[in-house]
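Notes to self, 3-methyladenine DNA glycosylase:
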Amino acid sequence: MPDTLTAPATLLGRAEWQARELAHVERADALTGDWRARVQRGEKHPIDDFLFTYYPVKPAHLRRWHPGAGVALAAAGEFERAGWRWYRTDAVGAVDVDAAGFLAAKSATVDFIERLLSRTAARVSQFGCFGLHEWAMVYRQGAHRHDVPLRLGQNGTDEVVESHRIGCSHFDAFRFFTPDAVPLNRLSPTRDNQPELEQPGCLHAGMDVYKWAAKLGPLVPGDVLLDAFDLARDIRWLDMRASPYDVSPWAGDPVAIETPEGKAEYVRQQRAFADRSNALRHRVVAAIRAARASAN
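result:
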């Protein structure tokens, strides 16, 4: 146990940090309550389940509050938190994040996330994709990822794909394209060129801010992580409402991107999500830079 912690930017008193922790836990439980109840009943949800299956973040992880690097918690040494990985306790019982240890162990991951989010936020948003990545994932395909019927049937779905230019810039969407759809994409996203292609208008890049925040663990303040989850959920609903799937039993009327009205509505929401995702990118990058400062 070290005698003193590296001087933190902020020291939170016991009552204050416990109140913040409780508020975080209550918010996290509210965000995951419906999913946890459906799991108990064995029910599937084609929209929300994605947040807990594609992204490997468990509700228990979401409810674990972190103050972020550079913040010490007074008198926290007697609590479970003192034994959490990447935390340290000083001689008087104050606990903070071991930013230096985390950065040393995960330097490549942290560097990649900082570079990716910074470059994405600095890029001009593109709003001409209309969510066609989801359509390309079922193009000329008999079996589909979701056990939900297609709104326009297979032939109608294929016609929509063939009547548009597809410009998907997101590797983790592009890799699910059907073989026949791959050559229709104007871009060739890879993991290596991800920092050069991702842009703020991409819905999947916006959802992924949640993934990157989660990967940074205790470096990211709890409110940033939950705000990123909120954004990912909101984007996911547009993603599926604009998809070829008939999710009307769960989401009501579709955003029919095969029509001019649907395209306009998609872009309207897409612009708002680009602003929200960029704000969160800046907050995640700020958390990384706070960790670097704390580690020096």
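- The CA atoms of residues 278 and 293 lie 22 Å apart.
- Residues 260-295 form the longest helix (36 residues).
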